């Protein structure tokens, strides 16, 4: 009987014909990760890095941010390349263990001047979180649109966690009242290190060598003790859904999360300058 007669004209399958299998060897070999053979990105802006590239960026961004603490791009890079393989996963897991954190991971909100309209925030009650946040932005002359996009974290969900932390940083400033100059940033970074355990926040403390003696003395005697107390006792701020509590009283939030408000750094610096000015005038008066 013919093959067609046996199968009634149906298409043939190889196993029914029992054709001998011929091994096929691929002529293409998988090439190792290199600068010329980079894996495809896993999300927009993603740049996969190999071990040597991460090491180079770690050293370069650490030295660059130490020389110029205002280089936000270098600080952002340092934060990303030192957050893996453990620390950013720990922070992601902390969000997964919290109901609000899980909701944030589902919704993936972004904090920008488009999602949080400043005119509305300025219209909120005096001591509300939204009003406090807007007032801090106005006083410091900063915008929520200046945060760099995450690039160097391979896991897409963990990349969002880092982006969320980065965009919440100004809310941390507003709730604590700490300003953006180096002394204030270092005080907040010390608090963030104990609250988030992101290595970059701890490494930033090396920038204290750039402070003036009086600033360094205030940081270590006044603001570091505050950072240790508040950082250790406070709940993890990554789990705050800021967009949903803008009308809440900021003092209630501090009490709920165990955050002690530090002394006003701007007022202290102002008082020190006035004291130095009076002392200078007194000495000049004596010399006349």
Provide structural commentary:
With 288 residues, this protein is mainly alpha-helical. The protein has one domain. It contains 14 helices and no strands. It has helices at 3-7, 14-17, 51-67, 72-81, 87-96, 99-107, 118-122, 129-140, 156-176, 182-196, 199-203, 213-233, 250-257, 265-287. The longest helix is centred in the last third of the chain and has 23 residues, at 265-287. The chain is globular, with a radius of gyration of 28 Å. 29% of the residues are buried. Residues 1-19 and 24-30 have low confidence and may be disordered. It is a peripheral membrane protein. Lyase that catalyzes the C1-decarboxylation of 4-hydroxy-3-methoxy-5-(all-trans-polyprenyl)benzoic acid into 2-methoxy-6-(all-trans-polyprenyl)phenol during ubiquinone biosynthesis. It is found in: Mitochondrion inner membrane. It holds the Pfam family Coq4. It catalyses: a 4-hydroxy-3-methoxy-5-(all-trans-polyprenyl)benzoate + H(+) = a 2-methoxy-6-(all-trans-polyprenyl)phenol + CO2.
Fraction in beta strands = under 5%
N-C termini distance: 128 Å
- The secondary structure category is mainly alpha
Sheet with the most strands, sense and barrel status:
none
Over the alpha carbons, how many angstroms does the gyration radius reach? 28 Å
Query: What's the average pLDDT?
Result: 85
The overall number of domains is 1
Q: Count of helices?
A: 14
Catalytic activity: a 4-hydroxy-3-methoxy-5-(all-trans-polyprenyl)benzoate + H(+) = a 2-methoxy-6-(all-trans-polyprenyl)phenol + CO2
Keywords: Lyase, Membrane, Metal-binding, Mitochondrion, Mitochondrion inner membrane, Ubiquinone, Ubiquinone biosynthesis, Zinc
GO molecular function: 4-hydroxy-3-methoxy-5-polyprenylbenzoate decarboxylase activity; zinc ion binding
Family: Belongs to the COQ4 family.
């Amino acid at each position: 009987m013919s093959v067609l007669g046996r199968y009634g004209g149906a298409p043939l399958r190889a196993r029914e014909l029992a054709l001998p299998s011929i091994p096929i060897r691929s002529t293409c070999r998988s090439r190792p990760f290199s600068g010329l053979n980079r894996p495809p990105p896993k999300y927009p802006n993603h740049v996969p890095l190999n071990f040597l590239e991460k090491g180079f960026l770690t050293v370069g961004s650490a030295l660059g941010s130490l020389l110029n603490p205002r280089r936000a791009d270098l600080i952002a890079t340092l934060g990303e390349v030192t957050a893996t393989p453990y620390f950013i996963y720990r922070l992601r897991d902390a969000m997964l263990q919290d109901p609000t954190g899980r909701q944030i991971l589902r919704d993936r909100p972004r904090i920008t001047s488009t999602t949080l309209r400043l005119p509305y925030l300025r219209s909120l009650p005096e001591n509300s979180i939204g009003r406090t946040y807007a007032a801090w932005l106005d006083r410091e002359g900063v915008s929520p649109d200046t945060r760099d996009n995450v690039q160097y974290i391979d896991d897409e969900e963990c990349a969002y966690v880092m982006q969320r932390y980065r965009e919440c940083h100004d809310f941390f400033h507003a709730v604590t009242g700490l300003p953006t100059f180096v002394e204030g940033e270092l005080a907040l970074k010390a608090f963030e290190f104990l609250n988030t355990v992101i290595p970059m926040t701890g490494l930033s403390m090396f920038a204290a060598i750039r402070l003036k003696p009086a600033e360094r003395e205030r940081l270590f005697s006044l603001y570091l003790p505050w950072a240790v107390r508040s950082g250790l006792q406070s709940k993890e701020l990554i789990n705050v859904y800021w967009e949903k509590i803008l009308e809440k009283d900021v003092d209630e939030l501090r009490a709920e999360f165990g955050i002690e408000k530090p002394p006003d750094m701007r007022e202290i610096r102002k008082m020190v300058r006035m004291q130095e000015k009076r002392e200078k005038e007194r000495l000049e008066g004596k010399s006349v």
